[in-house]
Specification:
Layout (H helix, E strand, L loop, with lengths): L3 H7 L5 H7 L8 E2 L5 E2 L7 H4 L3 E7 L9 H14 L4 E5 L4 H5 L7 E2 L2 E4 L1 H5 L5 H22 L9 E2 L3 E3 L9 E3 L10 E3 L1 E3 L4 H8 L3 H10 L1 E4 L5 E3 H4 L2 H7 L7 E5 L4 E4 L14 H9 L3 E5 L4 H16 L5 E6 L1 H7 L12 H20 L4 E6 L6 H14 L2 E5 L1 H4 L5 H13 L15 H13 L3 E4 L1 H13 L6 E4 L19 E10 L4 E6 L18 E3 L2 E3 L3
Parallel strand pairs: 3-16, 3-17, 4-15, 4-16, 8-11, 17-18, 18-19, 20-22, 21-23
Antiparallel strand pairs: 1-2, 2-14, 5-6, 6-14, 7-12, 9-10, 12-13, 14-15, 22-23, 24-25
């Protein structure tokens, strides 16, 4: 079979104006970035149509080194629905350069279920990530200038909490000291870099409803604290408007096409292990304004992406899925059943069945939100009929739907049965409510405990002294009604990346608390999770090249 990039390059793309027309968007309304990409103005969101659309969330079991294929499944389902004559748009996150050149590779789907042009989407795209990086670091520069100018006055800050961001994996920048080599170079300060998807500006972009709301939220960002404990914000710098100017184009979602020329909207890209892991509310509502069926995804496993999708994005955006699809593979199930990674392609019924425990925990969690659930199995050539039948029968016992997804090798044709089962499930058993894990009125600690115990299955939560002091400060400042976003490893329900399956009797360790006042949620950092990833021993960058004008090595 051809590589992803070979498949992408073999498909003749339609002009983006034709894609817009299919989605009911007038060519005059879009801002074209060449022939195959466009921006859609926020003003085209129609709340009445949003309320009538069928939103479907695609999530997954706990990810493994073998991969799961959540984005491929999301795109594949959209292709399948399009094949059976449904009006559908898929809404996804934008890829980050860090993972693209690091360990993961691209994030535009795979095989014959991709969004195109994949090279542009995986690389600089329309510059949204660069705009977010620039906006974040412009605030940092303006803050540093404030500190330089207010030295020796009562306006000087006792504590600075705003860092820098960069959209690359660079462990050397996690902790740095700035302002060295003389007073003319600023005030010596401990600082550091997070990756751009962890920026509060990214979260704000993905939760804002329009440009004015974006500007309001930017102004609320807490940069530091005075000696008396009062907060210092972007509004105190008087620059919220100028930062919003840097994001005036980035706030509009991006329109592209699938491998079968249906519409795809891609916008925003927070990671689910260190942020809230969903594309923008604007993008999802834009898709819902222009399609009867909208497929969207949430990052990593359902304990991270889906939990935050419901408790943060749906709570803030006033939306709710009518169905949740959990993606699984036989390989991942076997890894969760303690089968060695080198043996997961081999038939191993006992190992597969042991892995059902991980699937069942995710199913139970999704049901706790009031969701109708379906399991989609990404099919591989080495999957045996007996293994597939065992998974199907297990899902039937759990009272959830089951479907095979062959879109990677067959495109929309390989997802027709999947699509038909989704439509049937929506007609027979749609989700008609959304139950949150916690209430707004719960304390910050109560919210952390409810997520850790009810979603992860933790026995208890340990809040370290540093985090405890910050938690108490935020409670006193009146931020306790915000939702909580737990930053945690994606590879386990626990905060131990090596605890596969469904660990029990574990403790979630919270070692830091971060207030995202503009995004209006609180980040609780669990275990050893890093907000600036490092590179693996063999980075994907080693395989990316440009030969005779063509990019190779993207996957």
């Amino acid at each position: 079979m051809k590589t992803d990039i070979e498949i992408a390059r073999s498909i003749k793309l339609e002009h983006i104006s034709h894609i817009a027309e299919k989605a009911g968007i007038d060519e005059e309304e879009i801002h074209q970035y060449g022939k195959h990409i466009a921006k859609i103005p926020v003003s085209l969101i129609d709340e009445q149509k949003v309320n009538k659309s069928n939103l479907i969330l695609v999530t997954a079991i706990t990810p493994t080194k073998a991969g799961i294929g959540k984005t491929t499944t999301s795109i594949g389902l959209a292709l399948g629905l399009n094949k059976i004559g449904k009006n559908v748009v898929v809404a996804l996150r934008e890829p980050s350069l860090g993972p693209c050149f690091g360990m993961k590779g691209g994030a535009a789907g795979g095989g014959y279920a991709q969004v195109l042009p994949m090279e542009d989407i995986n690389l600089h795209f329309t510059g949204d990530f660069h705009a977010i990086t620039s906006a974040h670091n412009m605030i940092t520069a303006l803050l540093d200038n404030y500190l330089y100018r207010s030295r020796g006055t009562d306006r000087y800050l006792k504590e600075v909490v705003w860092k820098r961001v960069l959209d690359v994996n660079d462990r050397s920048l996690r902790y740095i000291v700035t302002g060295l080599n003389g007073s003319e170079n600023g005030v010596p300060t401990e600082s550091g870099f997070d990756i751009t998807p962890a920026s509060e500006i990214m979260a704000i972009l993905c939760l804002a409803k329009d440009l004015e709301d974006l500007k309001r939220r930017i102004g609320k960002i807490i940069l530091g604290y005075y000696a008396n404990g009062e907060v210092f914000t972007v509004n105190d710098l008087e620059v919220a408007g100028s930062i919003a100017v840097l994001l005036k184009d980035a706030i509009n979602p991006n329109l592209v096409q699938t491998t079968e020329h249906s519409a795809a909207i891609i916008h925003g890209g927070p990671f689910a292990n260190i942020a809230h892991g969903c594309n923008s509310i604007i993008a999802t509502k834009m898709a819902m304004s222009h399609a009867d069926y909208v497929i969207t995804e949430a990052g990593f496993g359902a304990d991270l992406g889906a939990e935050k999708f419901f408790n943060i994005k749906c709570r803030k955006g006033g939306i709710s899925p009518k169905l949740t699809v959990i993606v699984a593979t036989t390989q991942a199930l076997k890894m969760h059943g303690n089968v060695p990674v080198e043996s997961i392609k081999e038939n191993n019924m006992e190992g597969l069945k042991r892995g059902f425990a991980n699937l069942d925990k995710h199913i139970s969690n999704m049901k706790s939100f009031g969701q109708s659930v379906m399991v989609a199995l990404n099919r591989y050539g080495f999957d045996s009929d007996a293994e597939i039948q065992a998974i199907k029968e297990h899902c039937e016992k759990q009272g959830v739907g089951f479907a095979l997804n062959d879109s990677f090798t067959k495109g929309g044709e390989g997802a027709v049965d999947f699509a038909k089962k989704v439509v049937s499930r929506l007609l027979e058993n749609p989700s008609d409510k959304l139950d949150f894990t916690y209430e707004n009125a719960d304390s910050i600690e109560e919210k952390i405990n409810k997520i850790a115990k009810n979603i992860y299955g933790a026995a208890s939560v340990r809040i370290e002294n540093k985090a405890r002091k910050k938690l108490e400060k935020l409670e006193k400042l009146g931020f306790s009604e915000y939702p909580v976003c737990i930053a945690k490893t994606q590879y386990s329900f626990s905060d131990n990346a090596h605890a596969y399956g469904v660990p029990t009797d574990f403790v979630i360790n919270i070692n830091d608390i971060i207030i995202n006042n503009g995004a209006e949620f609180i980040v609780a950092v669990a275990g050893s999770i890093m907000r600036m990833p490092g590179l693996p021993a063999v980075p994907q960058a080693k395989f990316i090249d440009i030969i005779d004008g063509n990019v190779v090595g993207l996957s």
